[in-house]
What does this fold into?
Amino acid sequence: MVKKSEHRDLFPGALELMILKSLNWKPMHGYALAQRLKDISEDYLQIEEGSLYPALQRMLKTGWLETEMGLSVRNRPVRIFKVTDAGRKHLEHELASVEKMFAGVTRVLALAGQ
Amino acid sequence: MGWLRQLLTRHRRYDELSESIREHLEEKIADLTDQGMAREQAEQAARREFGNVTLIEERSREVWQWPTVESIIADLRYTFRQLRRAPGFAVTAIVVLALGIGASVAIFAFVDAALLEPLPYADPNRLMAVNESSAEAPLWPLAYPDFVDWQRMNKSLSSLDVFAGAGYLLRTRDGAEPVTAGRVSGGFFRTLGVRPILGRDFAAGEDRLGGPNLTLISYGAWLHRFGGRKDIVGQTVSLDNTGYTILGVLPPSFSFALGGNAEFWVPINTLSPHEQTRNFFNFFGIGRLRDGLSRQTAQAEMTAIEKQLQKQYSNQGRDLTAQVVPLTEVFVGNVRPILLTLLGGAGLLLMIACVNVASLVLVRSESRRREVAVRGALGATRGRLARQFAVEGLLMAAAGGLSGVLVAAALMRLLSKLVPKDMAANMPFLNGVNLNVHTAVFACAVALGSALLLAGTSTARLSFQKVRDGLAAGDRGAASRLWQRLGANLVVIELAVVVVLMAGAGLLGKSFYRLLHVPLGFDPNQVTTTRVNAPEQVYKGGKARMAEFSREIVERVKRLPGVESVGMTSLIPAQCDCATDRPHFPPRPYHGEHNEVDERHVSPGYLPALEAALVRGRFFTEDDDGTKPGVAVINESLARQFFPGEDPVGQKIANDEGGRDTEWEIVGVVSDIHEGALDAPVAPTEYFPLNQTGDNSFTLVVRTRQDATALLPELVRMLHRIDSNLGVSDEGTLLAKIEGTQAALLHRFAAWLIGGFAGVALVLGVVGFYGVTAYSVSQRTREIGVRMALGAQRNAVYGLVMRQAGWLTVTGLALGLAGAVGGATLIRKMLFGVAAWDAATLVAVAAVLGVAAMAASFGPARRAASVDPVQALRSE
It folds into this structure.
């Protein structure tokens, strides 16, 4: 059975954006990525670990990510996700528009009640 | 090609995905155990925080899939599994569909080739048969001088040409061989739009009287007689001892239905004395309508010209009128009724097949209520379930359609083979009967139609059913009302259609029987026949020489072992009312009345050899030869029609023999011999002595003491020994020739094919009926158990089931009988000697089907009556 509605946080593309930004900082395997997101979001965002995987597959399919074999901190062989050039370009583009959007939303929220 | 690579690497992706997730969990578990958690707890915690692994993996995989396609593939897999679990259902459904689809596709192929495909000529819709028509014959050929005038005077046709059949003796290395030929006016092939593939067409002037002896040859003749040699053009062949120069070769696709398998095509540049008169109608006209003009315009113009010519040549009393009809009409008009009848029959069979499979599907969907309900409860939408059924329907229809096409291919080959060669030559469209684009489209449409029906039945079933009701354990209700309503209606329709088909088969069978038992007026058994063409040097010797020649043949044939009697005729009986004459009866005044009679030229031994009864006077003797005044024998019909209340013996018949008025004295009256087609009434007939007419060809009729076929080889050898230049053809028994006539064959085909359809329909119908009754009983087991527990007797239960079956049968029969009379009225053209409402047939059909249906419901009724109430009530 196909359900289109993926579990997405905040707004469409936000999860992808956070993943891209994290992996752009450092290629990581899935668990490390999940830990990283959890750590830096400081429980502001509820990200179910598993929900990363459909997003990762989508991004692999689109060509923003690629995988290669590497080692975890425990020296186990794991699949490392890396941002491709296309992924980086997308990230830059999206960051710019997200910043603009937030600026707009913040401004409206600040002034709308006055 | 990205999607292809994706498709191929998908499984590697899936593996990587599983690996990633596994690594993820392993790392996490390791972290958690480091924090002091027990291994088991750590595993649980890791999984809890990760979420539903299977679901997430599934979701992640879906990223790589085409959702609709993949789920349809899943449906297909599921359907395959379902069908494998019920192979009996699948096989039955597919076989039944294959029979229905196969029969209708095969018949459609014939209909397509004959009625839908255009004739193989340029712009065939503009081609018209331009002839005359009379009260007796809708199509009456032209007289040559009339043709010439019509050609000259008309303005509505861009060209008008004629065809006449002909036969020649072709000189070959082994002697002489009779060949069929066509004689045509010069523009014949240009009118049709046919060009020789080698050499050239007739040129202007080559068809003028006294023109050169030229011939075009058919593609078949070129290949088989001349080895397909390119240098054949310009060479000479000997036809009837005359050299003809080969002008060209006609294309392989060329055929002209009236010409049969004519091999040589010569321009009409010699005319017999008969042919020069306006009373010898031997030329079939074809014309091409001028652009923008309608058939009616041409018809009107030709009628005016005809009237003018009649006045000009004072042909009084002629009741002929000009007739312009599409050429297609003439070529395939005679097979249209039978083809449409067969198509109708095949359609009904297909309908029964579909209804049968639909009720099977219904029965199955009934037993799948639970499954459907469970799937519905798990979240399958109605559309999703409907799609599942559609996929099932499509799959079965596709399998049925594919096997149906195989059935159709076999059936087409079989049916084409059943048409005798002589007849097939006049039906060039038979070559076009095959699996082509049209038949493929038709097969697909039929298969799709049945798929829709199957899916529709299941879906209709679904939409009536409240999904959740099905879950309420164990179908407490008696056989669901819906089932009874739909299933019963279906079986009534099925029975009704079976009745229509069986009645049709019965009527056609009876027609065929009647046709074969038409009083012939002679004994057709143990008679063998052979066409003989006298060598030229013999018939050039005149009537006396021909008489001597035929006497010699008779004498030598008589000496063959097993021969009882020998005779000769210009045309064997029970074939057609062709070769007709318009005599008058002096001294009565004659004003050109149209006295149409069959004319036959026979030897003295012929009528006795047929064992025809002499009514008055005498038959011919060897004394009635060319030196004596003409004599004639007439049949009783002629005597009745033209000499009512008089003794015809001693009276005179006069006719126009090639422009000369000739008188014949009637010397005898013979009982009616069925000269014409079996389905035509006996025509008045006059017989003249062959020895006085001096025909150069005749058919030898030999009555034998034993098996007629055994004599044939010896007869042919003996004839060749008499003269190697003698043409021998068309050898066969008289019985076979009668049964091979178009009338007999068309009726035979119709009777056998519709009979076959009806047989299959009867089996399907009875099996369907059995299935429905048995199912209904199995559904009512509980109800019956309750009834019996409350005191119902076994007999009452018996009666309950039989009464229900009886009602269905009676309703089906009543509807069917009404339909049968209607259907038979539609095919009344195909009926002979039997009315559409023939009571005997209808009663017999009703009886057979009624008994079969009751027998089919007997088993289920017994099962119902033997229900053990305790068991039935407990079994839930």
